[in-house]
Amino acid sequence: MVFSNAEGYRTLTVTDIEGVIKGYLIENTPYGSEQIRVQNINMSDSILLSPEWDYEVMPAPKSQLTGRTAFSLNIKSDGRNIQTYWISANIEILVDAVMTSRTLKDRQIISEDDIYLSKKILSELPAGYVSDVKDIIGKRTKRFTGINRPITEDMVEEPPLFKRGDKVFVIAESDTLKVTTVGIASEDGIKGRPVKVLNIQSKKEVFGEVMEDGIVKVRW
Fold first, then answer.
1. How many CA atoms lie within 13 A of 99 on its CB side?
2. Do strands 216-219 and 205-210 pair parallel, antiparallel, or not at all (unpaired)?
3. Of the residues 122, 194, 197, 202, which has the maximum number of CB atoms within 10 A of its CB?
């Protein structure tokens, strides 16, 4: 549908479309206005809008709402669609990401000086990125990591509560019996994970779960 420059009509500008797209994203995503960038809008036609008409934008089906994204621009009157245009825009979402401020060695305990928080484009971050420094400080790296790299959940782990060769308390229990003894850890013990322990009395190795205080719990 093509209109002349009739009195009362106005041309929708890129700024108009940017505002509507941003408004849609604010309402339909968990991100705030300061986190959303709408750039490089492509409108194939000049769009004239009557004073009695309204308009809305909707993302294309299955859109990820990041990167280059297609939208339908629906011109409406009395709730009915009059015309639909297709437009596209680059969508950038800025989020907090924990970054390395220095090279981290394998099995290094992470301190506050080792990391920093930075605003990054969501689509450029790896899956499982960490957004809060509190989730990282005190944990241990699982591998060597270079400087200025985003930290992901699979790069860190809880530090061991005890190391291989340390003496540990072993609690072995069943539904009717509970026995406590001393063992030697055959490997590092990380909270909540299974660990192999040598029972000093029986000279047999058993598997148990590392508890909060470093005790190994064995289920008979």
1. 13
2. antiparallel
3. 197
CA dist., res. 97 & res. 183, Å (int): 42
Residue 4 φ/ψ, nearest 5 degrees = -80, 175
Q: Where are the alpha helices (DSSP H) in the chain?
A: 14-28
pLDDT of residue 173: 85
Domain annotation covers residue 27: yes
Question: Is 172 within 8 Å of 178 (Cβ atoms)?
Answer: yes
Residue type, 109: I
Structure tokens at 197: 């322990």
Return the structure tokens found at 28: 């339909």
Beta strands in 122-187 (DSSP E): 140-141, 156-157, 167-173, 178-185
Of 93, 121, 139, the one marking the end of a domain is 93
In 10 A of CB 55, how many CB atoms?
Answer: 19
Number of domains in the chain: 3
pLDDT one-digit tens code per residue, 82-134: 889 899 999 999 999 999 999 999 999 999 999 999 999 999 999 999 999 99
Q: Rounded CA gap, 88 and 93, in Å? A: 16
Q: Letter for the amino acid at 157?
A: E
Q: Please choose, from the candidates 106, 208, 206, 218, the residue with its C-alpha nearest in 3D space to the C-alpha of residue 156.
A: 106
pLDDT digits over 188-202, tens only?
Answer: 999 889 999 999 988
